[in-house]
Amino acid sequence: MTQEITVQGTVAEGFEPVREEFAAFVAGERQDYEGQLCAYVHGRRVVDLWAGAGATGDSLYAVYSATKGAAHLVAALLVQDGTLELDRKVTYYWPEFAAEGKGALTLRDLLAHRAGLVGTDTGFSLAELADDRMIAERLADQRPFWRPGTAFGYHALVIGALTGEVVRRATGRTLQEVYEERIRAPHGLDLYLGLPAAHEPRFRPVRPMLPTPEQQARLDAAPTGPHTLTSIAFNRHGTDPTDLESLPNERLIRAQGPASVGGIGSARGLAAMYAATISGVDGRTPLLKEDTLAEFGQIHSVGYDLVARAHKSFGLGFQATADTWHPFLGATTIGHSGANGVQSFADPRAGIAYAYTRRRFAFPGGAAPENDRLAATIQQAALSAP
User: Which Gene3D superfamilies match (predicted)?
Assistant: First the structure.
């Protein structure tokens, strides 16, 4: 006899349908399911749920590319301050970047995944993937895989390092340090770009995907040539190919918090970050002004993604979440999913900040399918609230 997975936590009045939807989803999952769901509306936490044996609201999970949301919130703050200028050439901040025909690329195009630097010819070691400065040094010498600015493709493992090197050159501080000082620590966020050893006991290691036979057939049918742009972008082509599912289980990755994929946090931490960004929390002023939100949320790259080989769209560093994932959201929604099924976003027009984490890697990668149901239910409750 299997034991029912219990949903724990709280919802605000009017958000009871969210608990019901989460419970209905969890009831159909494996017995070892673990996940968290959190949402804010206009700066007030209205959903705080979790499920699974061993899971709590304070458990910490790998958030994979949802890390990019935190990284590019740093970039947005620095643009807002005037420290960075979007239409300056990257070489204004980072002269060595000019090598191999990259000298004309602007910061705007770099943030929009248009640099053509999805990886290197020979790949990265684990130590390099954990160290954004080492990634940046390798990429400064790399010839682009397409003419910079003419097309776009998902810079899956390196966009945070590219952004981070510009941040470091402009401020003298690493992106992780700026994030800690200006965003995480002041707001007490449970979302780390560099997990302190003291918090290691709260980390729940990633469990691998368990695809059905039909799902495995789809995975097997995907192009896997070692020299494709997809393989290069996900570092599958070198002598030390990356196993994405196990990457955050390496302490080196968690400790150094590479800004593309190394974030560790909870749904509470992700949702609170986006709430702080668009609405402010606990009476604070929102982190981003309306014009900065509009600039970073505006679609800059849309169409055929050369890496994903599918339709994708990006703002500046953030995914255009309403186009890529959830069409029922506001057009200016900013956010970023994670390869294991994590989703996180802020819809400024509706005032919604949303985050979902899960422990087992979901098929097929990217925001797990349950996010459609959960996010839509939260939106409906928020729009119906008095």
Answer: DD-peptidase/beta-lactamase superfamily
What is the model's pLDDT at position 226?
Answer: 83
Strand pairing category for 301-305 and 343-347: unpaired
Rg value, the chain, Cα: 20
Cβ 110 vs Cβ 155: under 8 Å: no
Find, among 9, 12, 45, the residue nearest to 275 by Cα. Answer: 45
Q: E strands within 142-237?
A: 191-192
Determine the pLDDT at residue 211: 87
60-73: pLDDT as tens digits: 999 999 999 999 99
Confidence (pTM): 0.97
Question: Which 8-state DSSP code applies to residue 181?
Answer: I
Cα–Cα separations (whole angstroms), residue 247 to 236, 242, 250, 257:
13, 7, 6, 11
Residue with tokens 């160290």: 131
Residue 3 has pLDDT above 70, yes or no: no
Quick one: CA torsion of 59, 63, 67, 68, rounded to 10 degrees?
A: -150
Burial class (CB in 10 A: 0-12, 13-18, 19+), 63: buried
pLDDT at 2: 54
Give the CA angle between residues 55, 60, 63 to the nearest 5°: 120
CA dihedral sign, ordered 16, 338, 321, 283: positive
Three-state DSSP state, 137 = helix
